[in-house]
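Supplementary Text 2. Reproducibility record for the structural model of the 160-residue chain.

All settings were left at their defaults, and a single model was retained for analysis rather than an ensemble. We include the record here because the model underlies the residue-level annotations in Supplementary Table 4.
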Amino acid sequence: MSDNIIVGMADYKIGKAPDKLMTIGLGSCVGICIYDLAKKIGGMAHIMLPSSQGKKGDNPAKYADTCIPLMIGDLLKMGVNKAGLKAKIAGGASMFSFAGNSPLMKIGENNAERVKLEIKKAGIPLVSYDVGGNFGRTIILDLTTGDLLIRTINHGQKVI
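Retained model, structure tokens:
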């Protein structure tokens, strides 16, 4: 029987099939799923911000640039094949509209771009993503199939 492993905000968890990893309430945050389908092992992170720069001593799972390498390291310790890793991401919405065009106000967009960059730097293919928009998401990664179920309010659900 599978367990749903809940990933909180500024958190990441690792699981093994038949587990499912789940995070709720992705707005401007990004859910990052990195998995090895052959070994049926994967991780999910719920990052809040793109960069930990200047935030020494803070929770590394909060930031794309520190969380992704940590999660990959833990996956490698579980015996995944780095060459077999794949990634899927969701979230990065613009939940609020602000007057002006300040890059500081594009938190969701900045998060999604940084996550894509960090995954690329790690040499992991980003096989699919669902980012942007102005609505929240709940995501569930099935470690048996590699399917990522994305649920939204008023925008239905889909599998990527």
